[in-house]
Amino acid sequence: MALVDWKWDPIEGIGDAEGRRDDLYKELLRDEAVARLYELGKYEKTKIILASSVPNHITDTNTFHANVSDAGGYLERTFMSPASIRAGNLIRGWMEDAGLRTWVDCMGNVHGRFEGKNASARTLLIGSHLDTVVDAGMFDGSLGIISAVSAVKALKSNEKLGELRRPVEDGKKEVKFAGRLHMRVSLDGGYHVFDESIHYISDYRASAKLLWTPTIGVLELGILNANGLLPMKSRDGRGTTDAYCVAKYGHKWIRTRTIVDSFAPQWNEQYTWEVYDPYTVITIGVFDNCHLQGGGNPATTKDPRIGKVRIRLSTLETDRIYTHSYPLIVLQPNGVKKMGEIQLAVRFTCSSMFDMLQAYMQPLLPTMHYVQPLSVYQLDSLRHQATHIVSLQLARNEPPLRKEVVEYMLDVGSHMWSLRRGRTNFERLLTFFKGIVGAWKWFDKIRKWKSPVATILTHVLFLLLVFFPHRVLPVVFLWCFVVGIVGYRRRPRHPPQIDIKMSNAESVQGDELDEEFDTFPSSKKGDVLRMRYDRLRGIAGRMMTVLGDLATQGERVQSLLSWRDPRATSVFIIFSLVACILLSLIPLRTLIIAHGFYAMRHPRLRIDIPSIPKNFFRRLPTRADSML
Q1: Burial of 218 by CB count in 10 Å (0-12 exposed, 13-18 middle, 19+ buried)?
Q2: Does residue 100 contact residue 114 with C-beta atoms inside 8 Å?
Q3: Phi/psi of residue 140, each to 5°?
Q4: Among candidates 62, 106, 108, which has minimal Cα distance to 87?
Q5: pLDDT reading at 21 higher than 90
Q6: Three-state DSSP state, 376
């Protein structure tokens, strides 16, 4: 980014009432600035002749264009790339020509500064970024940089760079102050720009390479073969499949060769990636090539997906080779279908166990995401733009990776509404709470004396925990240790694969699949759209009821001391006073024992009706009475 640091000493005659702007060298601002725009913002070798009001002043930009782009067919200048360094040197020369003192810091930022008469004056910054996106426009960053340099040079040519003065009146007193110019070319690469779903991300590093952490190991992937593939298209009156694989981890994409006309292709190709974090996922996808032998219009024909496999590196043991066949499952508008199997060989080699264990203690994202976090909308927008840029870049490879392939690998559209995925996530949440519900059912059996022996042992254990509270945490961690040791023998032998049952892919209805594959905005009309809207309203209504119940319980707690119900608040504050006195007089251990034995008393001593505190709490007022 180019910044002009201008500590103002406002000047006499610039922008005054008489409009004395004619001595700012229009030909300089026009011809030289436009020539530099072509010099910094173009990639192709073209000869541009610019008309000039200065005699014999002809600008030829033929020799500069190919030096400021990393790509040959379009403008691309990424952070600290060779083209970025050349462009920085070019801009530094322009700054020196404008009379600025220049230097380059350790981050590659190019600075240009002019010291004014008052070094403590406030600073004016003007500038833009030096780097560009892939396939950038001519003015991407260049316009702001060149505008700032041209403004400084115009002041120098007008001999007013050191005389920045203009009258500032306050009554009859004239105040004059001076300033300085400071220009800087920089890029903030402290953020990680997501180009894939956060649940299946393969890279957490910052954009700037200087902020990358050391590698912790190497991932090796062997794409061996596939079996039982289904025919994907018809050729010469028979079904056929021309399969190829794509794998993505971090910034590195690979594509295997296409095996023509085979339902059991043999690839036997091996690839490696450097690993920076174990909590990352490698994605392998299989596609059918529909662009062989003129097999369709490249603009409209798409390579259909055959299946996808995800492997999380943290589920792999180090230095062990996993050779396993993974099912290739695809969800289509007519239902879920198994397209075949693919056999992969995976090995995660750790170069330093200490570094890998240390990675578990580090934040997932770069520091800038926590110091100056981006909003959800900014992250979504950045991901959309990053996906588009990656698609354009990979489409220029040979052989190309087409847009539908990249979007499938990056899970574009995973954030869209799906009743099937919503039901799956709800069941996952229930599975998490299943342990808590199971513990409550066990305690309910204890308190109902379904097994007298277990209930008596629970009473004894309860007494031990009360009389020896310092042993509670050691017992809990010992229990975790024993459960972990026992579970080691039942550990998974292979990385997890796509679970059709958990994904509700088999039980999903046809209309739900049609809604999941619908475009956004929807392409449906009439009764179908109305039915889906009504169904969504029903689901949202139940969620609204749950949220309202949670809000009601919270407001009842607040009502204890709000005097909205004078009688209830009076009872509660009297109870609080009595409880304060009892807790001061009676040992806490005695109260805990009494409460525990009361909760586990025999069913003959219990009446199955709501308790007094529960009845009192349910009668507290809430703000629901004020809702329309």
Answers
A1: middle
A2: yes
A3: -70, 100
A4: 108
A5: no
A6: helix
User: Residue 174 and residue 15: Cα distance in Å, rounded?
Assistant: 18
Domains annotated for the chain, with CATH where assigned, are 2-185 (no CATH), 198-409 (2.60.40.150), 536-628 (no CATH)
One DSSP character per residue, 25-87 reads: -HHIIIIIHHHHHHHHH--S----EE--SSTT--EE-TTTGGGS-SSSSS----TT-HHHHHH
What 8-state DSSP symbol labels residue 491?
-
Alpha-carbon Rg for the chain, nearest whole angstrom, is 35
With 0.70 as the threshold, say if the pTM is over it. no
**Looking at residue 258, what DSSP letter applies?**
P
> Identity (one letter) of the amino acid at 512?
E
Distance CA 353, CA 278 (A): 11
For residue 5, is it left (φ>0), alpha (ψ between -120 and 50) or beta? beta
Cα separation of 96 and 93, whole Å?
5
Residue 169: phi, psi to the nearest 5? Answer: -100, 135
* Measured distance CA(595)–CA(605) in Å, rounded: 14
Q: What span, in angstroms and rounded, lies between the C-alpha atoms of 600 and 65? A: 84
Compute, in degrees rounded to 10, the torsion defined by CA atoms 170, 176, 177, 178: 150
**Gap between the Cα atoms of 612 and 558, Å rounded:** 19
Peptide bond into 521 cis (omega under 30): yes
409/412 Cα distance (integer angstroms): 8
- The residue type found at 131 is D
> What is the 3 state secondary structure string of 469-485?
HHHHHHHHHHHHHHHHH
In one-letter notation, the amino acid at residue 313 is L
Per-residue DSSP letter, 430: H
Tokens 């289904």, residue located:
230
| Cross-strand partners of 287 | 244, 305
Using an 8 Å Cβ cutoff, are 130 and 77 in contact?
Answer: yes
Torsion over CA of 369, 373, 378 and 380, rounded to 10 degrees?
50
Q: Helices 588-599 and 566-585, interaxial angle, to 10°?
A: 120
Mean pLDDT computed over 284-309:
83
CA distance 416 to 165: 59
Contact 595, 465 (CB under 8 A): no
In this predicted structure, the answer to whether residue 288 has a pLDDT above a threshold of 80 is yes
Alpha carbons 595 and 581: distance in angstroms, whole number: 17
DSSP 8-state assignment for residue 336: E
Q: Average pLDDT of the chain?
A: 81
Q: Are 220 and 347 in contact (CB under 8 A)?
A: yes
Instruction: Write phi, then psi, for 136 (nearest 5 degrees).
Output: -80, 165
Q: 248: buried, middle or exposed (CB in 10 Å: 19+, 13-18, 0-12)?
A: buried
C-beta atoms surrounding 348 within 10 Å: 25
Q: What is the DSSP secondary structure assignment for residue 259, as one 8-state letter? A: B
pLDDT tens readout for residues 452-486: 898 899 888 888 888 888 888 888 899 889 988 99
